[in-house]
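Final report, Chapter 2: Outcomes

The project's central promise was a pipeline that accepts a single protein chain and returns its three-dimensional structure in a standardized token representation, suitable for archiving and comparison. That pipeline is now operational. To close this chapter, we reproduce one record exactly as it appears in the project archive, with the input sequence first and the structure output second.
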Amino acid sequence: MQHSFAIGDSKLDLWVGDITTQTTDAIVSAANALLLGGGGVDGAIHRAAGPELLDACKALKKTLPGGVLRTGGAVITPAFKLAAKHVIHCVGPIYDREGPEAPELLSSCYREALAIARERALGSITFPSIATGVYGYPVDDAAPIALGTVIDELRAHGRPQLVRFSLFDATIFNVYRRAGEALLR
């Protein structure tokens, strides 16, 4: 399953599949604040990348205030055994804990990851649906925030050339597709 939208000279691509197999310049991990791997997307990325990713995250933690990545923040590491060249780690909001700040924190994940991609001159990036798993963000609420942020960033900066969302299943894909169609009318 795949659906694409043109945003200026860039392409916004939605598809159902395994993010660890993506060949984009970077993939995004829905990380926890400690950057030590976990379940869901983060665990799958760590397993596929190999133990070097955890070592890189441990070294990166030493550069962060209190050894944690703030909610809404993003950092980059090499991707090691993955097809992608880089992993950008983002900490999404825990929906029930963040309350009214959750939308801005979620949007910040996408903005900061895209800013890193532009700083590194990366041509392509693949996102998961950040915070919609164990962090409990409702997909129907998260999709328009995620896509709206990406669309705004692409319109403002014109890059990267390809932004892809690798979505877990057809249900989530359809939520994102409908949100994209509504935003781009």
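Archive annotation: Residues 139-157 form the longest helix (19 residues).
This record, like all others produced under the grant, will remain available to the consortium after the project formally closes.
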